[in-house]
Task: structure prediction
Amino acid sequence: MARLNSITIDCRDAEVLAKFWAEALEGYEVDSEWAMVLKSDSGPTIFFQAVPEPKQGKNRVHLDIAATERLGEVARLKGLGAKVYKEMEEGGYSWTIMQDPEGNEFCVTQAAG
Result:
């Protein structure tokens, strides 16, 4: 059987994105030995891989962040350099689609309970 080892995100500036996501996600920090790798005791490793080409089109995979207070978290992430792309409501659920500093989409949802 296979298990999830890490999530790799292609980007232009791995240092900028690693620092953004280390601030955005609770419990993650940049691993100084592996440069642009985020490590956490409770989640998968996130690796930022610099590539020469810019992002094109919509992400095929994205991260979802569950927040205790969604709108407050959206404001905090905007302060870190994220942008609101779209507010969504469907089937009784609300979420915010955001973009990180390189335009990669991610969602902020309200945590259950």
The chain has two domains: 6-52, 59-113. The chain has a mean pLDDT of 88. The helical segments are 14-24, 70-80. The CA atoms of residues 24 and 79 lie 10 Å apart.
